[in-house]
Structure formats: structure tokens, C-alpha cells
Amino acid sequence: MPAKAKRPCRSPGCRHTTTERHGYCEGHAHLATGWTQRRRGQSGRGGRPWRRIRDRILQRDRYLCQPCKRQGRITPATEVDHIVNREAGGTDADTNLEAICSACHKAKTARESQSGRG
Ligand SMILES: [Zn+2]
Ligand SMILES: [Zn+2]
User: Fold this and answer.
1) Structural contact between residues 101 and 68, judged by C-beta atoms closer than 8 angstroms
2) Is 62 helix (H, G, I), strand (E, B) or coil?
3) In this structure, what are the phi and psi dihedrals at residue 80, rounded to the nearest 5 degrees?
4) Segments in the chain below pLDDT 70
5) Residues measured by CB to lie within 5 Å of ligand 2, the ion
6) Its pTM surpasses 0.85
7) Structural domain boundaries of the chain?
8) Between the CA atoms of 72, 73, 77 and 80, what dihedral angle is there, to the nearest 10 degrees?
9) Containing H/E element for 92?
10) pLDDT (tens digit, 9 = 90+) per residue, 48-80?
């Protein structure tokens, strides 16, 4: 007669055995469900939200450097900058962020570091 292979439950410390494919005993079968759910949930989480914020701001500002635009120049933006520096209490709110080109970003950072540290 074909004997089903009994394996010890995968839950640490559990002394029960199981013939289930997921490897958990009856009492721990819910852990198997949680295991698959966790795997599915991983795609939504992970990664820093900054990338998503950045993309949103670039799209909002149509990928144009806002400081350049205020001076009547059209320059493609490659970065997103905090209007009020985070060290000065600025937040990650959309209203405190704007698209900026690397030249403007460098100039702004240089200016800030100069005035910030005398
Ligand atoms: Zn168990
Ligand atoms: Zn610029």
C-alpha cells in the first residue's frame, strides 16, 4: 500500500507531522497561506517612495526646470529639488518640490552650503 510521506511541520518548535505540500500541520496551515500572501505583497512594498514622488513632480512640471522657467528659459529637468531645504524645515510635500536641471541644482546646493556654513 502506498504510504504518504509524513514530514515534520515547518513551523519552528512544532512537533506535528504533515502530508500537505505546503509542509505545515493542520494547526499551522494558516502560516502557509500567509507565506504566499507575503510573497504577493512584496511587489507593492519595498523601494523608497522618493522615486515615485520624484516621477510625479517631474510629470507635474512637464520635465522642465522651474528656476530656469521663471527666468524665461526652457531647460529639461533631470532632478527634483526641495524649494525649502530640508535642513531649513522643508518637507517632502508636493508644494515644496519642483523639477530642476542639474546646473540649477548644483548652483543652488553651492549657494546653500555657502550661506549655511560661514
Ligand atoms: Zn505545526
Ligand atoms: Zn535650470
Assistant:
1) yes
2) coil
3) -120, 135
4) 1-3, 34-48, 116-118
5) 65, 67-68, 75, 101, 104
6) no
7) 7-41, 50-116
8) -40
9) none
10) 688 999 999 999 999 999 999 999 999 999 999
> What does the DSSP assignment read for 81-93?
EESS-GGGT--SS
DSSP classification of residue 83: S
C-alpha of residue 10 to centroid of ligand 1, in Å: 7
Specify the DSSP class assigned to residue 81. E
Q: How far is the CA of 117 from the centre of ligand 2 (A)?
A: 24
Residue 8 dihedral angles phi and psi, to the nearest 5°: -65, 145
CA distance readout (Å), 96 to 3, 42, 82, 92: 67, 30, 6, 7
For residue 85, how many other CB atoms are within 10 A of its CB?
15
